[in-house]
C-alpha cells in the first residue's frame, strides 16, 4: 500500500510541500504533475501497479512512499525531533527535514546566509540633519528591540530621535510601562502616539481575521499613520525595531530572496530604477528612499505586478493591505504624502542598523535586557524568560493562529516566531534550555486554542452578527 508522504498536498495539478526542506532542495516545494500522475496521486492510498509506479517516476520514494514510511507529525513538543545543532524541531516547524547528521536546513545553510543581514539598506552612521528638527525616526513599541534601538540612537549616538508609537488595544502592560520609562530616560527624544478609531480598527481587524485568522497588522498600520508625519517634518531617516533573526527569517520563509538582501548595494538596479523616475520627471532617489516609497505604495495601492507573480510568499503583507483597504477613508493622507514626497524627492529613507554590530558582535538577548532595565527604565514581561516579541499582550495568539494554519496545511507561511526562536537558539547567546522553555511556555505553539484568542475575536467584532 502506497500513500502520499506527510506534508505533501495535492493542489490542482501540483503537489506542494508544507515544510522547510533540506539544503539541496530547500525551496523546491512545488512539483507539477502530469494528468496520469494526478489521477494516481488523487486515488492514494492504494496498491500501485508496475505501470503506475513507472508513471510516477521520480515521485516514488519522496512524494509517494509505502504507507509504513509516512512520517508522523508530532502533536506536542515532547514528541518532537530536535536539530542536533540548534533548537529547531518538527513540532513548531512541522515538515522540517534533517540531514544525515541530524541538522535542520537553517544549520545546513548557516555559512552561506551569514551575509543576509537586512532587506533594507544597512547604515553605520546617521548624520545630523540640517533640514529637520530630527535626525531619525523610530517606530517604537516599548518592546525589547525597539527600546534597544532607541537607547543606541539617543544615548549612545546622541541623535535627535522622533519616537512613533501606534497605540493598539493589545499593548502589553510591560510595554506600556516601558514607554513611560523611556519618556523619563530619554531627554533628546520626542514621543508621538497615534491611534485609529476603534470603529475603523474593528473593520480592519475583522477583514484581517477573515483573511489570515488573526488581527496582526503591525507595523503596516503604523506606517500608514506616520508616513505623512515623516514627510511633513522632513525626517531624513526612519527605522523599525527588527532584530537579526527577524530579518533572516524572511529568507527561510521564502518571503525575501537573497537578491533582496543585496539590492541596496546593487548600483545597476538603483540606476535602472532612477532612469524610470527621470523619464517621468521625478527626481532620482537613493537607497532607503526607494524602499520607503515601495513600502508605502504597496500599502496605498496594493502589490505591483512584479511582486504578484514573483513566486515568493506574499501572504502576510497582502492580507494586511487588503484589510486596510476595507477602510478606504484611512488612505487619502498616505496617498497625498506619497505623491508629495515622490514629486519633491523628500522621501524619508527606510534604513536598518546591524544590531549584531552595534551590540558588540552578537545581539545577545539577555545582555540587551540588562542594559534596557538599567539605562532605559524598561520593564520586562511577567514571564522573565520571554524574549521574543515582548510588546503585545496577544502575541501568543498570533503565534497560535499562524502555527495551527500551517500545521493543518491551510497556509504556506511558516509561523514567524517558529523560525525566529529557532534561529535565536544559536545566534542570540541563549542557553538551549531557556529557548526550549520559551517555546513551550511563552509562545503560542499549541494545537489547543489559547485564552487570548477570545480577546482578539472580541476586538475584531467576530461573532457580533
Which short descriptors sum up this protein?
5-stranded parallel sheet, alpha/beta, 20 helices, 465 residues, Rossmann fold, single chain, 10 strands, 3 domains, 3-stranded antiparallel sheet
Query: Which outline best applies?
Result: globular
Give the amount of beta strand, in percent.
5-15%
Largest sheet, in brief, is:
5 strands, parallel
Average pLDDT number: 91
Q: From the alpha-carbon coordinates, what is the Rg to the nearest angstrom?
A: 23 Å
Main sheet: which strands, in order across? Answer: 8-7-6-9-10
Structural class, by secondary structure, is alpha/beta
pLDDT < 50 runs, ≥5 residues: none
Task: Quickly describe the structure.
By secondary structure, the protein is of the alpha/beta class.
Structure notes:
The structure is a single chain. By secondary structure, the protein is an alpha/beta fold. The chain folds into 3 domains: 112 residues, no CATH class; 215 residues, Rossmann fold, CATH 3.40.50; 83 residues, no CATH class. The protein contains 20 helices and 10 strands. The strands form 3 sheets. The chain has a 5-stranded parallel β-sheet, sandwiched between helices. A 3-stranded antiparallel β-sheet has the order 2-3-4, covered by helices on one side. A two-stranded antiparallel ribbon has the order 1-5. Strand 2 and strand 3 form a beta hairpin. The longest helix has 15 residues. It starts with a strand and ends in a 5-residue tail after the last helix.
Amino acid at each position: 500500500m502506497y500513500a502520499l508522504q506527510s506534508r505533501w498536498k495535492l493542489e490542482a495539478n501540483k503537489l506542494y510541500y508544507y515544510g522547510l526542506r533540506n539544503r539541496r532542495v530547500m525551496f523546491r516545494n512545488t512539483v507539477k504533475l502530469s494528468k496520469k500522475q494526478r489521477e494516481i496521486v488523487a486515488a492514494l492510498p492504494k496498491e500501485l501497479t508496475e505501470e503506475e509506479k513507472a508513471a510516477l517516476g521520480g515521485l516514488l520514494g519522496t512524494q509517494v512512499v509505502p504507507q509504513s514510511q509516512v512520517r508522523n507529525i508530532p502533536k506536542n513538543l515532547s514528541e518532537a525531533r530536535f536539530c542536533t545543532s540548534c533548537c529547531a524541531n518538527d513540532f513548531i516547524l512541522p515538515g522540517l527535514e534533517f540531514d544525515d547528521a541530524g541538522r535542520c536546513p537553517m544549520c545546513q545553510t548557516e555559512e552561506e546566509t551569514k551575509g543576509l543581514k537586512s532587506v533594507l539598506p544597512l547604515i553605520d552612521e546617521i548624520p545630523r540633519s540640517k533640514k529637520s528638527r530630527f535626525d531619525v525616526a523610530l517606530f517604537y513599541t516599548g518592546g525589547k528591540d525597539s527600546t534597544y534601538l532607541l537607547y543606541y540612537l539617543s544615548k549612545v549616538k546622541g541623535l535627535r530621535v522622533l519616537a512613533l508609537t501606534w497605540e493598539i488595544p493589545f499593548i502589553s502592560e510591560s510595554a506600556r510601562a516601558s514607554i513611560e520609562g523611556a519618556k523619563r530616560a530619554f531627554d533628546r527624544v520626542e514621543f508621538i502616539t497615534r491611534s485609529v478609531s476603534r470603529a475603523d480598527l474593528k473593520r480592519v481587524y475583522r477583514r484581517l481575521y477573515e483573511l489570515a485568522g488573526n488581527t496582526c497588522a503591525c507595523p503596516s498600520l503604523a506606517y500608514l499613520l506616520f508616513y505623512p508625519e515623516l514627510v511633513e517634518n522632513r525626517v531624513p531617516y526612519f527605522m523599525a525595531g527588527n532584530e537579526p533573526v527577524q530579518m533572516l527569517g524572511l529568507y527561510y520563509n521564502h518571503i525575501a530572496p537573497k537578491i533582496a538582501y543585496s539590492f541596496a548595494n546593487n548600483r545597476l538596479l538603483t540606476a535602472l530604477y532612477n532612469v524610470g523616475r527621470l523619464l517621468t520627471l521625478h527626481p532620482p532617489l537613493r537607497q532607503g528612499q526607494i524602499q520607503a516609497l515601495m513600502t508605502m505604495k504597496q500599502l496605498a495601492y496594493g502589490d505591483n505586478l512584479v511582486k504578484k507573480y514573483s513566486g515568493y510568499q506574499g501572504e502576510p503583507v497582502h492580507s494586511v493591505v487588503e484589510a486596510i483597504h476595507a477602510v478606504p477613508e484611512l488612505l487619502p493622507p498616505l496617498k497625498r504624502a506619497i505623491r508629495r514626497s515622490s514629486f519633491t524627492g523628500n522621501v524619508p529613507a527606510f534604513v536598518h542598523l546591524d544590531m549584531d554590530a552595534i551590540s558588540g558582535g552578537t545581539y545577545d538577548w539577555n545582555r540587551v535586557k540588562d542594559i534596557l532595565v538599567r539605562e532605559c527604565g524598561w520593564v520586562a514581561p511577567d514571564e522573565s524568560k520571554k524574549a521574543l516579541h515582548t510588546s503585545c499582550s496577544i502575541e501568543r495568539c498570533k503565534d497560535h493562529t499562524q502555527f495551527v494554519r500551517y500545521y493543518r496545511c491551510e497556509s504556506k507561511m511558516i509561523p514567524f516566531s517558529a523560525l525566529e526562536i529557532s534561529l535565536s537558539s544559536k545566534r542570540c547567546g541563549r542557553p538551549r534550555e531557556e529557548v526550549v522553555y520559551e517555546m513551550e511556555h511563552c509562545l503560542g505553539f499549541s494545537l489547543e486554542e489559547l485564552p487570548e484568542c477570545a480577546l482578539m475575536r472580541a476586538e475584531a467584532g467576530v461573532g457580533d452578527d
